[in-house]
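Deliverable D4.2, example record:
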Amino acid sequence: MNTTPVICHTIRNSIIPSVVMLSLLLPACRSQKGGQSQSGLPAKDSVVAIIRQANNYWQAQKPNPGNAFWDNAAYHTGNMEAYRLTQDTAYKNYSERWAIQNQWMGAKSTDRSRWKYSYGETDDFVLFGDWQICFQTYIDLYNLDAVKDDKKIARAREVMEYEMSTPRNDYWWWADGLYMVMPVMTKLYKATGNIQYLEKLHEYLTYANSIMYDSAAQLYYRDAKYVFPKHKSANGGKDFWARGDGWVFAGLAKVIHDLPANAPYRQEYIDRFKAMATAIKAAQQPEGYWTRSMLDPQHAPGPETSGTAFFTYGFGWGINHGLLDKATYLPAVQRSWRYLTNTALQPDGRIGYVQPIGERAIPGQVVDMRSTANFGVGAFLLAACEMHRLVSNLR
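Output generated by the structure prediction step:
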C-alpha cells in the first residue's frame, strides 16, 4: 500500500496550515493515495481533504478571479459545490468577489441592437452562452441570501428574458452551451416561477438535438461541423469529443436536479441522461479515464481529466438520485475516481491532464501532468463533491 499519498504533500507544503485542517488531513495521510479503502470507496474525510487540496491550490494561484467568460465561470460552478459541501466561507467569498468584480453581469453591452449569439469574446456577445454561464453562480449566491438581493440576478433575468422574447430557437448550437445555459434556465425558473424558462429550455434543446445528437451512438457531436460522415476520427469512425459530451451529461444532471417531479419534459431529460450514461460507460478505458475522442482511443490517446471528471460527476449524481443502477455504474465511478486522485491530482494540488481550451480531440496534442485549466478544476470539484455524497449514501 502506498502510505505517502498526494494529500500529505499538502501538509508538508503548508498550503493548509491551520491546526483544524491538519487534523482533518491526517487520516487521509494514513490511507492510500486518493483515500481508497479496501472496499474501493474513499473515506469521506479523505474526499473533503482532496477537495480542499485542489481548491485551495487553485485559489492561491489565482488571487484575481478573472472575468465572467465561460472558462472562469465553469470553475465557479465547481467552487460553489465545494462551498455547499464544506461550508468554507472562503470559497463563497471568492465567488462573490468574482461576481462583484464583474458587476453581476456576463457580457456588458447595454445596446440590445448589437447583441449577438455567435462565438465572440467581447461585450456585444450578450446572447452567446459562454457569457451566460456566470449567471449560474450569481443565482446560487442570490439563493444563499436570507434577504434576497435582486441586483444579483437582475442582469441574468434581463438577458434571458430578452432572449426568450425573440422568435429564434437556435441559441444553443454547440455542445458546451448546454452546460453553460440549461442550468441557468432551471435556476431562474426556481427563482421566479416563470414557466417560460422551462418551455424555452425545451425548445432550444430540441434545436440542439436536431443538429448535434446521434441517436444511434446516444452521444452528442461537439457541433454540426463534426457530424459523421462529414467529419471522421483518425480511424474513420464517429468522433465524439469527451469534454463536449461531458458538458452535456453534467448539464442534464443539473437540470433534472432542479426540476420538480411533475415538471414538463422531465422524463424526456431523464431518458436522455440514462441513454448517454450507457454509451459513456461503454467508452471508459480500463485505467478509469476517457480518451478525448471517446470511440476512437487512438485518435488522441492518453488520459484527459475534464471529460473524465464530468462523467464521474454525472455517474455519481445518477446513482445518488436513483436514476443509475448502483451495481452497474459504481465500478465505473471507482475506476474514474482512482484516475482522478492517483493520476490527475498532483502533489501540490494542481489538477493535471486537462486538455486546453478547444473544441475537438486533436491528434498529437500534448496533454500531461502540467496541463491544467480553470474549467478542469471546476469539473474535478463537481466530481469530488458528488463522490462525497455517494460515499455518505453508501456507508
